[in-house]
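Much of what follows relies on a compact textual record of a protein's fold. A record is reproduced here so that you can trace the correspondence yourselves:
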Amino acid sequence: MPWPRFDRRAYLLLLDDQRRLLLCGGCCGGWTVPQVRLTSGAHFMESATRFLDERFGVTSPRFGSVYGIRQSRAGDNWEFDRVTAAHAFIVRISDAEGATIEQTSATHTRWGTAELRRRRREISPEGIVLLVTGYIEGWIPDGPISLY
């Protein structure tokens, strides 16, 4: 029986009331946003909603109207030998929810735009800081955008 293929991901850009992005610094040797690895056939938003509830206790996530979509072509990605897909969702959380996440996990922190810009090369996946700052500053249009 073939093992599940986790070639699809949902990146979660959790922004609090003060427009700080939640980052994890303990899982990958650098700073990253929370992410959900999905099996084939799993729905991106449903999986993201379930993860937010189970991992962070965010029971009614407020998804932003902007989200990014990236799908590779065969041979584009050194990590996989097949087509991959990723969605980046902006999720609004309260300051209290952000504080609770930080208190329950010493590896999570929230950075504002100045810190994000200053340390952008430390944050993966590449381009997340641009997406977040564009959303915060209002120069990214509403709706889905392609991240190619």
Remarks:
- The mean pLDDT is 83.
